[in-house]
Every structure is written in C-alpha cells, then in structure tokens.
Write a structure and sequence with these properties.
heterotrimer; B: about 250 residues; Ubiquitin-like (UB roll); Fumarate Reductase Iron-sulfur Protein, Chain B, domain 2; 2 domains; 10 helices; C: about 110 residues; mainly alpha; 3 helical TM bundles of succinate and fumarate reductases; about 0% strand; elongated
Chain lengths: ~110, ~250, ~110
C-alpha cells in the first residue's frame, strides 16, 4: 500500500462518511430526545434492513478512515518506529471492523 | 499621514526607544542566548542589528547573508519566535517594545550561532522531483508557453520562491516527521507539474506523492502565512493532492 | 513558536484531537451496542448507566467532537480539492462556522436530554 493510496483512501472514505455522519447526528439528536431504551433502539434499527446495511457501510468506512489518521498521529507524535506504527494502525482497523460489524449484527435483530 | 515628517526616533512602532535589548543565539544546538545593547536607528532592519553586533561586540558571530534586498534567500532567522527574512524585516515591525530575540532557523541543524546546515532542505528539493528535465536542445526553437493558460498561472504563483527555508522552519509537520519534504520542495514540484516543458511529469508526481510527500501535509497553513514573498505552498500542495486524486481516478490531463 | 498563532493551525489541532477522541470512543461504542446480543435486559442496564450526569456530559462532548471533526474535515476537503480564490485564502473563515455548528449540535443535544 503506497502513501498516495492511503492518503486518497482517507479522503475518499471522508467523502463517504460525511453524509453518513450527518444522518447519524440527526438520529442521535432524535433518539436521545425520545429517551434511550433497548426497546426503542432495537425497534428502530430492526424496522427495516436498510438500517443494518447503512450502519455496516458506516462501520467499514470508519474502519478505513480512522486507522489512517491514527497512523499519522502515532508517526508524528510518538517515538514508535514506522513498522510498529503501521501494525498498530492496521490492528486498530481490524478491531474497529470486527467490533463494529458485531454491533450492527447485535442491533439488526437478525441474530434473534 | 503621508506628509508627516518623521523625527529620528519616531519611526512607526519605534515609540521613542533609543536602545534595543538584543538576545542572540551563540553556540551550536547546545548553545545559549547572549544579550547585547544596540542603538535604535532609523530604517533599521534585523539584519542591520546582527551586523552591528558582529562588528562592535562579537567579531566571531556566525551568520549568513548576501544580497540584503530580499532576493538571495540566505539571511532567514528566527526573530522573536517567528521565522523571517531578516534583511527585509524592519525592527519597528517586530520590536515595538525594544526587545529582539534572534535565533537560527528551526527544523534545521545548527552549525554555529545563527547559521544552520541547509543541506537537508535542498536535498528534499531534489527528492520531491524538483529537477527540471527538458527535451529540446539549443538547436531547436524555444518552447512556446501560453502565459494565460491555467497551468502557467499555477506555475507563476509559486515560481518566485527564494529558497530561504522560512516556510520549512514555520511548519510543524517538518518538526514532527523528519521524512516530510516540506512546503518549499513540494511548491517547487508543483511549479514543474505545471510546466509544459518539463518532460518527467509522472516521475515528479510520483516523487511528490510518495512517502513524506503531499499526503503528509495537514493544511496547517503556517507556511503560507510565513512566506516572505507571498507564495502559498499550502495552495501548491493542495494542487498536488488534487492532481494525485485525478490521476488515481484516471482523470488527470497530461 | 508564534508561526502557529492562527486559525488554520488551531483547526488542525481541533480536527486531530476530536478525531483521536472519536477513535478511542468507537470501540467502546461498538462494545456497548454489542450488549444487545446478550438480551434487552443487559442492554437496558447499560443504558441506565448512560443516564448518569457524568456520562451524559461525556456524550455531549462526543457529539461536539463529531460535529467539529465533520465540519473541519469538510473544510479540508474544500481546501484540498476545490479551486482557491486567492493565494491567501485557505478558507479560514469556515473554521468559525464549523465551531459554531458543532456547538449548536451540542446545544440541541443538551436541550433534548435535560
């Protein structure tokens, strides 16, 4: 993976994330106003398959975007070597992807 | 205000100060500031102050300058914490309180006193793909460049760089990441990427987008604010970023 | 170093630190949602923990950080990929608007939960 690709991947994932974050913020403001409960959350996320699909894409885009930024921070602000920095960032991306997709699965209602 | 006659001590910002308290860096990386008293004079530049200290106080003071008119790019120093070209920086502009601190440029190894080793700065220039590759010999007619074309206007915006390293010294990414090529080198690459006579376009784009290239820039914008000749390396680097995106999408015009 | 004293540099720090905070929060957020796998009761017990004032304050911070990261990021995309109007214009004006927008989001969040 070249630096150019990573740079562009971060910008392209940002373009994908921007509208998703806006929708997510609307949901946050709406859901917290109505009061958070397992019933309300699961009823919403399970109401249509579009929500799990949306959140799965959201997770994938975030799992691409965040580790590249983390890699820059580790490289510039810590004394870690480039190899360690690269592996830590990659590991973080995998953790985000796995935990994120698991969370989407959990709230999709498909597991029950 | 234009017809106001200035008295000898009333230069704008001078506020009647007759003596400057000047701290100058002495030694290498492990050195210390030494303080000198220098008379405040009319139309006095920071470089004038350094010269006066060298002539009257410490003859062995090491500093670098040549043209004294803002063309050669050799006299940049850190003045009161900010990188500046000292020959065109009037004391009245930076030392309203009569105090000056003059240190070598940041982000470059100090050789002695106010002199830095600019080797890495120029090496990165080459590393960013900044070497011009022509195709015509002197027997052929000169290449025609349309001065109104967008590419030529892009090149014009960055071409007057005097290689003073003020931007390199102002940039935090340079201090955080020793592989970062820096604003000046990437600005140079951008002028070549807009020069229709430059044959090695793909090589320059590859060099300017490789590890330490345009992707390392975080658009902090310190370089464009520090540049003494008004160039915007931030804009030039953004141009390379845009070009690398278009190249990736197969939409770059060659 | 006074070369840092300008809005674009502050925006860089805001963008980076908000991104870092969001990156640290995300795995915890995913783990919390994953509790739904263990049944609605477990999930509800966690959600009642989220009602604590300190947790609410942290949530407010995350909403503001998400807004900041979004708006500062959009500015970066504009600066990097759209044409510039002049050499000196790195759209620093958008930084104030982005900060205000993030605070408005935080305000709406607070208004809804208090």
């Amino acid at each position: 993976m070249t630096e150019t690709r990573l740079f562009l991947l971060q910008r392209i994932s940002a373009l994908v994330l921007a509208p998703m974050v806006i929708l997510h913020l609307v949901v946050i403001l709406y859901a917290t106003r109505a009061g958070l409960s397992a019933e309300a959350i699961l009823a919403r996320t399970g109401s249509t398959p579009l929500w799990p699909v949306f959140y799965a894409l959201f997770v994938v885009a975030a799992a691409v975007h965040a580790p590249i930024g983390l890699r820059n921070i580790l490289r510039e602000w810590t004394p870690l070597s480039r190899g360690v920095t690269d592996w830590l960032s990659l590991g973080f991306g995998v953790v985000l992807l796995v935990l994120g997709l698991r969370a989407v699965w959990a709230v999709s209602g498909w597991a029950a | 205000m234009s017809d106001t006659v200035q008295t000898p001590t009333a230069e704008p910002g001078g506020s009647g100060i007759k003596t400057l308290e000047v701290q100058i860096w002495r030694g290498g990386a492990e050195g210390a500031f030494e303080t000198f008293s220098v008379p405040r004079r009319d139309n006095q530049t920071v470089l004038d102050v350094v010269t006066e200290v060298q002539r009257h106080h410490v003859p062995d003071l090491a500093y670098r300058f040549a043209c004294r008119v803002g063309v050669c790019g050799s006299c940049a120093m850190t003045v009161n914490g900010t990188p500046r070209w000292t020959c065109r920086t009037h004391v009245g502009k930076v030392a309203g309180d009569g105090k000056l601190s003059i240190a070598p440029l940041r982000n470059l190894p100090v050789i002695r006193d106010l002199v830095t080793d600019m080797g890495e700065f120029f090496d990165k220039w080459t590393k960013a793909g900044g070497k011009f590759t022509g195709t015509r010999s002197r027997a052929e007619p000169m290449a025609e460049v349309d001065p109104t074309s967008r590419a030529r206007r892009n090149a014009d915006a960055g071409i007057e760089c005097i290689n003073c390293a003020v931007c390199y010294s102002a940039c935090d990414v340079v201090s955080w990441d020793k592989d970062y090529l820096g604003p000046a080198a990437l600005n140079r690459a951008w002028t070549l990427l807009n020069d229709s006579r430059h044959a090695a376009q793909n090589e320059t784009l590859a060099a300017a987008t490789a590890h330490g290239g345009c992707g390392s820039c975080h658009t902090q914008g310190s370089c464009m604010r520090a540049c003494p000749v008004g160039i915007s390396p931030t804009r030039s680097i953004a141009g390379i970023k845009r070009m690398s995106l278009l190249d990736f999408l197969g939409m770059r015009r060659s | 170093m006074s070369a840092r004293r300008h809005r674009s540099y502050a925006a860089h720090l805001g963008h980076r630190l908000s991104g870092l905070a969001l990156a640290v929060f995300l795995p915890l957020h995913f783990l919390a949602l994953g509790l739904a796998l263990e049944g609605a009761d477990t999930f509800d017990r966690f959600l009642s923990f989220a009602e604590l004032p300190l947790v609410k304050a942290a949530e407010w911070g995350l909403v503001v950080f998400l807004g900041l990261h979004l708006f500062f990021g959009l500015r970066l995309l504009v600066v990097e990929f759209l044409p510039w109007s002049s050499d000196a214009d790195d759209r620093a004006g958008l930084i104030g608007w982005g900060t205000a927008g993030a605070l408005v989001l935080g305000g709406i969040f607070l208004w809804g939960v208090i």
